[in-house]
Design goal:
There is one protein chain. By secondary structure, the chain is α/β, with parallel strands linked by helices. The chain contains ten helices and 13 strands. It has a five-stranded mixed sheet with strand order 1-7-6-4-5, sandwiched between helices. A four-stranded mixed sheet has the order 8-13-12-11, sandwiched between helices. Helix 4 links the parallel strand 4 and strand 5. Helix 3 packs across helix 4 and helix 7 packs parallel to helix 8. Bound molecules: coenzyme A (COA). Coenzyme A (COA) binds next to helix 2, helix 6, helix 7 and strand 12.
């Protein structure tokens, strides 16, 4: 029997309308455009309007991906959505999006792997397709992470933005996803976390204590080191050489982390998709947003090999090596 691959047949993305530049942030906190650009590569971010939710962005991105794939929502047999900022506690955002798309009846669930959410979701969806369980799957990464941002804290508020991206995966004899690698180490929780929740309880603080706690310098160091070994592991899992990769599509958190990974792969920055300048860190939204931008701008073409990777709170880290 021929090998079944999960193949991306359509991509889509969505961003809130409102753009906030570094100069805008200079008016809120003690920071500068120069500091933000040189430390992170970020120039601007999109921020959701009041009432605009993760589900709104996810639905729009999904509709665009379905349209690009020429797949009707009713044909889907699975929706996996990576997010850390669900609209409500339950039902899952995947269920809310499913209903809005008109895909009622198919399996739908969220994956919370912080910034690695989309790549985790892609890994899960790949297994469903390879096993023969699913034929047409919608995979989404969507966040309104700025809702967790403390706008008085310059160390974190300059880093994040809102957005969503989606892909349609279909079972195919043509490759396809070659390999996915998913990892986590909960021992690093203290370096990047949001301390409150339904079970642990909320706090009598602004925003009920919902805020990102991050030790930036430590996160940076572990991210660079971890992504280094992840790249090697992924190439080995796919039985490929770094020279066979056409495009690196990394998590868009910090340009310096991205450059370190590209260097490890011996790839010039011309082969790296960078959107962190325009979108900042949109967590689960970042990789599928970058992918959709690369596809729609004509950079990424059919038949090319793409290496997707992400790193986030947990820590979690994940990759996918695929032929587009
Ligand atoms: N504007 C101006 N100054 C700022 C600032 C801001 N927005 N944020 C921090 N600073 C200051 C610090 O207070 C510090 O001042 P000090 O030297 O007087 O104490 C100085 O800048 C340097 O801080 P440092 O933490 O050493 O900077 P850095 O080079 O490590 O860059 C990050 C900070 C956060 C940009 C960087 O560590 C990073 O990107 N880390 C990874 C974060 C990440 O990607 N998180 C998400 C993972 S999914």
């Amino acid at each position: 029997m021929a090998q079944i691959y999960a193949r991306i047949t359509g991509t889509g993305s969505a961003l809130p309308e409102r753009v906030v530049t570094n100069a805008d942030l200079e008016k809120i906190v003690d920071t500068s455009d120069e500091w933000i650009r040189t430390r992170t590569g970020i120039q601007q971010r999109h921020i959701a309007a009041d009432g605009e939710t993760t589900g709104d962005l996810a639905t729009l991105a999904a509709q665009r991906a379905l349209e690009a794939a020429g797949v009707k929502a009713s044909e889907l047999d699975l929706i996996v959505l990576g997010t850390t900022t669900p609209d409500i506690i339950f039902p899952s955002t995947a269920c809310l999006v499913q209903h809005r798309l008109g895909a009622n009846g198919c399996a739908a669930f969220d994956v919370n792997a912080a910034c690695s959410g989309f790549v985790y979701a892609l890994g899960v969806a790949d297994k469903f397709i390879r096993s023969g369980q699913s034929k047409k799957v919608l995979v989404i990464g969507a966040e309104t992470l700025t809702r967790m941002v403390d706008w008085n804290e310059r160390e974190t508020c300059v880093l994040f933005g809102d957005g969503a991206g989606a892909v349609v995966l279909e079972a195919s004899e043509e490759p396809g996803i070659f390999a996915t690698c998913l990892h986590a180490d909960g021992g690093f929780k203290h370096l990047l976390y949001n301390p409150v929740g339904v079970s642990a309880g909320f706090k009598d603080e602004p925003n009920h204590g919902v805020r990102i706690n991050m030790s930036g310098r430590e996160v940076f160091k572990v991210a660079v080191k971890t992504l280094d070994s992840l790249v090697d592991e992924t190439l080995q899992a796919a039985g490929m050489e770094a020279s066979q990769i056409d495009w690196l599509i990394p998590h868009q958190a910090n340009l310096r982390i991205i450059e370190a990974t590209a260097k490890r792969l011996n790839m010039p920055m011309e082969q790296v998709i960078v959107t962190v300048d325009k979108h900042a860190n949109t967590s689960s939204g970042s990789v599928p947003l970058a992918l959709d931008f690369a596809v729609r701008s004509g950079k990424v073409k059919r038949g090319q090999n793409l290496l997707l990777e992400a790193f986030g709170g947990g820590f979690t880290w994940a990759s996918a090596l695929l032929r587009y």
